[in-house]
């Protein structure tokens, strides 16, 4: 996954030198992590009797890119300054826009686009993973549901923040944010 993201970040930054800080945040978003989603996908594949497959590993890595995108967006929504002791994307990007009007808003906008770029990369990695077209076709509707439910979970959290505690809604937020 790292070589793919690095290559895509380089292509992005090659468009204009001013994009380098954004590209750096794309790479930073995938620098760490336990890669549990990819591991669960891989071992589920193997448990179903499927052979080891580099194509499946690439497809599973796309789940990590979805997670990275969701984390960037969640940090932005929650206005989190740090994640695992490091500045979040919208904080790190302030330096790139510090001399511009509304620099905080500009940094937040750039962070949103970092998340969007990661989500696009996830789709690209999945569809170019090398899995047979029939497998991709069966997975495509699930990909759509994943995106819908992930965004629904974030929306529910935003809509419910500050409201009276409600266990059912809280459980729904947890379920969908971890789609």
Automatic annotation (TrEMBL):
Belongs to the FPP/GGPP synthase family. One of its GO terms (molecular function) is metal ion binding. This is Polyprenyl synthetase family protein. Its cofactor is Mg(2+). GO terms for biological process: isoprenoid biosynthetic process. Keywords: Isoprene biosynthesis, Magnesium, Metal-binding, Transferase. InterPro entries: Isoprenoid_synthase_dom_sf, Polyprenyl_synt. It comes from the Bacteria. Gene3D superfamilies: Farnesyl Diphosphate Synthase.
């Amino acid at each position: 996954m790292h070589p793919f993201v690095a290559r895509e970040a380089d292509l992005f930054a090659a468009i204009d030198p001013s994009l380098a800080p954004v590209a750096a945040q794309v790479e930073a978003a995938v620098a760490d992590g336990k890669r549990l989603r990819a591991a669960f996908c891989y071992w589920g594949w193997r448990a179903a009797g499927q052979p080891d497959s580099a194509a499946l590993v690439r497809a599973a890595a796309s789940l990590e890119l979805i997670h990275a995108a969701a984390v960037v967006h969640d940090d932005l929504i929650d206005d989190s300054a740090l994640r695992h002791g490091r500045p979040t994307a919208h904080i790190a990007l302030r330096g790139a826009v510090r001399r511009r009007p509304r620099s905080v808003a500009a940094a937040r906008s750039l962070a949103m686009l970092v998340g969007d770029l990661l989500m696009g990369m996830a789709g690209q990695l999945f569809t170019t993973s090398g899995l047979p077209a029939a497998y991709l076709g069966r997975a495509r509707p699930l990909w759509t549901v994943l995106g819908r439910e992930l965004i629904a979970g974030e929306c529910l959290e935003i809509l419910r923040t500050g409201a009276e505690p409600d266990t059912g809604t809280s459980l729904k937020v947890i379920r969908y944010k971890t789609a």
